[in-house]
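Hey, quick one: can you model this chain's 3D structure?
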Amino acid sequence: MPDTLVILRRELKSYFVSPIAYVFGVLLLGVLLFLSSYAIEQGSGANMQLFFGFVPMILVLFVPGLTMRLWAEEQKLGTIQLLMTFPVRTFSLVLGKFLAAVLFLAFVLVLTLGLPLTLGAYGALDWPPVLGAYLATVLFASSFVALGMFWSSTTEDQIVALLLSLVSLGVLYVLGYPIVVDFLTGWLPPWAIDVLSGISPFKYFTSIARGVIDTRDIVYFACFCGFFLYANAMVLNSRRQTG
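Sure thing. Here's the predicted structure for all 243 residues.
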């Protein structure tokens, strides 16, 4: 755990001293706030349902841009060889980078709290679904970070990592989208529909966003992140063994 905290502090510091991270954060926050104003203009009232309806697609587009550099840049610059010589377990390196990226995204999300606070001041805002939606967004983003980091560990080309993440995250997203599920129902047997929709993080995002915390949803995100973080560590371990 101490090793993980060292990597976590190192990565968080790099986010807050890097102009690229600031540009990414400002763009993401700007898009989220634009969606906030759009939701208000559409007369959604004192609720955040329309706002959080847009958030998953925004994360599909933005998270690959954040994760593409996490390992690919280390490989391109040659600094990954230095990291591999540290007396630190590979999984601690992976977990530290993962937590730093998730905390950075969570920090950007915190900056949007002004919207529900404003809506709550002028109307009767139902807070449990709002808080559930924020939790769902963090978990949803965490799953995307884990998958994006895995792809970044497999290549030193950031563009390749970006494209692989965009395609895989986009497919996972649409597999859980109700319109797509309804379309596939006419083509595939029920068990296949259950399997395909069951692997999509979007299905579990919508479940938690309703304000009801189901342990099965939490277990899904934990298993999803754990699987890809473990796969990430395996890729790095193989690289460490081969030098």
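One thing worth noting: Residues 215-242 form the longest helix (28 residues).
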